[in-house]
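tool_call: predict_structure(chain=1)
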Amino acid sequence: MRFLTTPPFQGRERAPFLLLVALTACGTLGMHVIIPALPATARAMGVSIASVQLTITLYLIGLSIGQLVYGPLSDRFGRRPVLLAGMTLFTLASIVTAVAPTASILIGARILQSLGGCSGLVLGRAAVRDGATPERAAGKLASLTMVMSMVPAIAPAIGGFLTAFVHWRASYVLVATLGAATLLATGLILPETNHARTKGPAFRSLFRGYAQLLRSGPFLGYAVGGACSTTSFYGFMAAAPFIFEDHLHRPTQEVGLYYLVLMLGVALGSLCANRLSRKVGLRTGLRLANGLAILGAVLFAAADIMDWLSVPLVVGSVTLFMVGAGMASPFALAGSVSVNPRAIGAASGLYGFIQMGYGMLCTVVVEAWNPGAIYPVAVVLLGSVIAGLGVITLAGRRT
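tool_result:
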């Protein structure tokens, strides 16, 4: 039992930054790295494009639902034991995805993988907020987002080459390996960062904390507005392999390189947020981020309407959108987890649920509206950031 609360190599009170990056990245890494392999996975398993895209949609559902549980549990029992349990599930499920013989087993394992991986996503962010002021947390979260964004940026490029030159399963093996390494590091060196744990039955605290947050105008403004501004790009990511390969006739190994450029946009946006976090308010930062994202979405939609689609136009316009998304994320998250300092885990979990839930909705709309078409993606991106700006503005007027 002592191992659950104290690591064998105790010697620090704060969690190592690189470990927080790895923990936070595992959940999203499990999605991004396999995207270039989706067409090859569909061909190898003899299923449709829509079926294999379920590995993205259901993964997002798992990320959403799991965060609702992990956050409050970590407020009650601590970050470390809950993280160890979640990362164990993520690693075991990742191994199953690497050897799954059928699409059904692959999809089922992906759901379990997402339920485990979201523990690092929500609790890594909560550990950053533990003991920090909202302004300082925004800067630290921006740094975390900036560094973390490079991991899923590089991973799809690696996944594209692994798929093209090794095997379509190689990307799944990579996720399992990284999950095991992160689990080992967590067990050995991660300290407990939550020193203000809630008391009473965990599930009673869970519902009470969520009820308070859902009645909070500032929380909803940051969480809903932030979700519209950040995770709507999942709609593009789910359709991107088919846009680049089918519409723009580019080879599979290039798709990962385009993702690298897009995620560099997220890193640039996070760097801007880090620089601005102590100079502008959280809502002002969000409005600036939305402005950039709207400009990118307008350019992408115009390229489709005018039939000017090309790799430079698609990558350039969506990269500008991603700069706005990367800038919005730390401002929205810092605002959300600062509403109630005694419910940081719950706020991080509920924020993540809303964020990933909206991302899942965007992928469903793109897939169901007209699979393979580009205009649904343009509508989702532009409509989302306009809605996000409206929600943030409305919430600001009511507080």
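agent: The chain has one domain: 15-190+201-397. Proceeding to next step.
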